[in-house]
Amino acid sequence: AHAGATPPPPGTLPPQSPGHTHAVTNLVSFKSASGIFILSSSLDGDVKAWNGTTGQCVASESNGEGVVTMSMGADSAGKPLLLLGLESGSIMVRNLEPTPKIQQAFAPILKLSQHMTAGHSGAVKALAQGSPGTFYSGGMDGQALVFEFTGDLGL
Length: 155
Prior knowledge:
Blueprint: E1 24-32, E2 35-42, E3 46-51, E4 57-62, E5 67-74, E6 80-86, E7 91-95, E8 108-112, E9 124-129, E10 134-139, E11 144-148
Antiparallel strand pairs: 1-2, 2-3, 3-4, 5-6, 6-7, 7-8, 9-10, 10-11
């Protein structure tokens, strides 16, 4: 924006900020050393990060399938993670901030699925953060599951 430009009215996005192409399923606020961000998930498969002050889309990552829900989480050392509940019943775990080992924010760390570890046989409808290293999920299959990260996630 140039000097003297007026911000968009509250509740709207600047025209240069592309939105989602399908329903937005969740919003999460995230504060980091870089500022405050609003994360949005959508059935279009994307998770987007929006600058909490300007409304500008600053990052967008595809997950290859619809994201039904998302939640903050943390590894066992307390480092922040983003948990994404997917239409297939899988749970995608992404880092939130660059680290010395993973220099890109939103990089996929691991994907939990019924086929590989434990997961849901239908869409993941709910996620909740527990104590560091622990989170909970609920799915269309009627199950509520508890997950615990053990060991180094490479953050």
